[in-house]
């Protein structure tokens, strides 16, 4: 079969089919009982796309997911209808921006188009909703289809969000909490073998490790509540210097901090802010931990606070993020590590910052300058 009419989403610019062509294709596929029945039998949202990757037939589950009628879906691209934040980055829309080169949906479509065989890829999408950003995990499945010599693509999205959340939770317990618990156990074993005077010197270390175990568990509980929209916010006066002292004390206990330093700088402006201290510390802690993880031995992570115009925290490290990492760093299940869920820190930081602290989290990264994540909070009214 000739599949040359199918364009790879992340290689070629998009062209759009004429409305008359899309309606002709829709009528043809709707009349094809096999194609229509096959699509409706899918247990997940699915659509048949034309060579320009436009929807010409959608099943009921996709209509329900998007809240659109069949008429409203015709001619649209998948990224647009599910609300992908990158679907409007480029003039030609979904499938044509730099971010689309790292999209699992785009890769699945491109692989199926070029090989003529079904292709599957994991696809993480950040979508815009009235309540804020929504992180979604899908498995994109693309299957070439030919009808009367005309090429189409059956494109389905299976929701894997629960699976990814479970992996994140497993990793948190089997890696982070377990490491802290083992460290605490080893310290207590050492404690029992020491004279009382020496054993008492280990109390601060034991307390810090116990606090770290509690923090890891509470952080995951808060993230789950935040995603459900049930997290409570307690705004009060917060002494920034004390907050940063707590932050550095906790962060230096991380295994990632070994052989590295944390430098704190409090610059101009008022050093007391109104915010939720616990959530802000969790945001900054996630960013500092990631910065330590990205740093090499002997390198420093810098935490800076400036309140001359509004409260701004900046966390800097000397590493540089690749383009692929930049486009995916805020996705819940994205990871630069082999373990699933390693990227949950930046996802959680942005969720808490934007939805609960009403601030903004951004980053810059460049050769010779390193990477800086910036948390900007509202000023006093």
Summarize the structure.
The chain is of the alpha+beta class.
Structure, described:
The chain is an alpha+beta fold and 381 residues long. The chain has 2 domains: 19-159, Beta-Lactamase; 163-376, Heat Shock Protein 90 (2-Layer Sandwich), CATH 3.30.565.10. It is 43% helix and 24% strand. It is built from 13 helices and 12 strands. The chain has helices at 19-31, 33-41, 60-66, 70-73, 78-82, 104-115, 161-192, 196-200, 203-228, 240-251, 277-294, 323-328, 344-356; strands at 46-49, 55-58, 119-129, 132-147, 150-159, 236-239, 261-269, 272-275, 300-307, 312-317, 360-366, 370-376. The strands form 3 sheets. Strands 2-1-5-4-3 form a 5-stranded antiparallel β-sheet. Strands 7-9-10-12-11 form a 5-stranded mixed β-sheet. A hairpin with a 4-residue loop joins β9 and β10. α7 (161-192) runs antiparallel to α9 (203-228). The longest helix has 32 residues, at 161-192. The protein is elongated, with a radius of gyration of 25 Å. The chain starts with 18 loop residues before the first helix and ends in a 5-residue tail after the last strand. The model is unreliable at 1-13 and 338-342 (pLDDT under 50).
């Amino acid at each position: 079969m000739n599949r040359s009419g199918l364009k790879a989403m992340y290689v070629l610019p998009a062209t759009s089919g004429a409305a008359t062509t899309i309606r002709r294709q829709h009528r043809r596929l709707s009349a094809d009982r096999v194609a229509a029945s096959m699509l409706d039998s899918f247990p997940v949202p699915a659509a048949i796309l034309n060579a320009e990757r436009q929807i010409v037939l959608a099943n009921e589950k996709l209509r329900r997911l998007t809240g659109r009628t069949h008429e409203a879906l015709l001619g649209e691209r998948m990224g647009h209808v599910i609300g992908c934040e990158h679907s409007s980055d480029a003039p030609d829309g979904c499938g044509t921006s730099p971010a689309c080169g790292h999209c699992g949906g785009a890769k699945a479509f491109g692989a199926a188009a070029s090989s003529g065989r079904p292709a599957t890829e994991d696809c993480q999408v950040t979508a815009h909703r009235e309540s804020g950003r929504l992180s979604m995990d899908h498995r994109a499945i693309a299957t070439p289809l030919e009808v009367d010599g005309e090429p189409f693509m059956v494109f389905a999205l299976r929701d894997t969000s629960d699976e990814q959340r479970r992996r994140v939770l497993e990793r948190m317990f089997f890696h982070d909490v377990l490491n802290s618990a083992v460290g605490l156990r080893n310290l207590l074993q050492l404690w029992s073998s020491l004279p009382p005077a020496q054993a008492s010197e280990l109390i601060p270390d034991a307390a810090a490790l116990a606090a770290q175990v509690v923090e890891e568990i509470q952080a995951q509980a808060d993230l789950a509540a935040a995603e459900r929209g049930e997290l409570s916010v307690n705004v009060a006066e917060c002494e920034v210097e004390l907050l940063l002292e707590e932050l550095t004390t906790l962060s230096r206990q991380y295994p990632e901090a070994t052989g590295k330093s944390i430098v704190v700088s409090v610059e101009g402006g008022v050093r007391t802010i109104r915010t939720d201290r616990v959530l802000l510390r969790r945001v900054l802690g996630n960013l500092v931990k990631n910065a330590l993880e990205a740093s090499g031995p002997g390198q420093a992570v810098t935490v800076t606070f400036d309140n001359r115009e509004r409260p701004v925290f900046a966390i800097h490290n000397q590493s540089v993020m690749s383009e692929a990492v930049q486009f995916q760093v805020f996705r819940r299940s994205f990871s630069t590590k082999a373990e699933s869920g390693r990227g949950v820190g930046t996802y959680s930081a942005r969720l808490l910052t934007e939805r609960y602290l009403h601030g903004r989290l951004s980053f810059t990264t460049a050769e010779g300058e390193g990477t800086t994540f910036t948390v900007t909070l509202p000023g006093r009214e």
